[in-house]
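Progress note, sequence design subtask.
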C-alpha cells in the first residue's frame, strides 16, 4: 500500500468541489452578460426613439420657421406654407401615436411617425404659441412625451417663425 505522501491525483470530493465552484462562476458570468445585454437593448431603444422624436421635431421646426400661418390645439399643430391654407403639414396625436398629415393643394395624406408599436406610445403632445398684437404666431414650442417599456421620455423643440415677420 502506498504511503499517503506518495499518492497522486485528486479525490472525488475535490473534483466535485471544483465543479461546483466552476458552475457558480459560470452562472455569475452568464447573469452579468444577460444583464448587460438587456441594458444595452433598452438604451439602444431609447436612443432610437429619441433620435426619431428629434428628427420629427427638427422637421416641424424647419416648417414652422418658414410658415405663413400656424394653428394648434391640444392634440395637433397645423403649419401652413401659404396664406390660402392649401399647402402645409399637420402633426396630430391620436391613439397614442403621432401622425403626419401632408397638405398639398388641399388634399391630405397621412402617415404614422411615432408610437403605436413595439411597446411604444405617444402619451403627451403640447404646443405653446407666442402671438403678437396682430394675432399671428411668432414662436412655437412643441413637446412630445413618449412611453416605451414602461419608461417615459420627453423631447422638446422650439422655433421662431420668420416668414410672417410683420412685427
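Output:
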Amino acid at each position: 500500500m502506498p504511503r499517503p505522501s506518495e499518492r497522486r491525483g485528486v479525490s472525488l470530493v475535490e473534483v466535485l468541489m471544483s465543479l461546483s465552484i466552476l458552475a457558480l462562476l459560470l452562472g455569475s458570468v452568464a447573469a452579468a452578460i444577460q444583464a448587460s445585454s438587456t441594458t444595452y437593448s433598452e438604451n439602444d431603444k431609447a436612443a432610437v426613439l429619441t433620435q426619431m422624436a428629434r428628427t420629427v421635431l427638427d422637421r416641424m421646426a424647419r416648417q414652422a420657421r418658414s410658415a405663413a400661418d400656424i394653428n394648434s390645439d391640444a392634440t395637433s399643430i397645423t403649419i401652413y406654407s401659404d396664406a390660402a391654407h392649401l399647402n402645409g403639414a399637420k402633426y396630430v396625436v391620436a391613439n397614442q401615436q403621432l401622425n403626419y398629415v401632408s397638405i398639398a393643394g388641399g388634399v391630405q395624406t397621412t402617415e404614422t411617425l411615432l408610437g403605436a408599436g413595439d411597446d411604444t406610445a405617444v402619451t403627451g403632445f403640447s404646443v405653446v404659441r407666442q402671438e403678437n398684437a396682430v394675432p399671428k404666431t411668432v414662436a412655437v414650442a412643441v413637446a412630445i412625451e413618449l412611453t416605451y417599456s414602461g419608461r417615459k421620455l420627453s423631447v422638446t423643440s422650439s422655433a421662431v417663425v420668420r416668414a410672417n415677420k410683420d412685427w
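The chain is about 30% helix and 40% strand. Work on this subtask will continue into the next period as scheduled.
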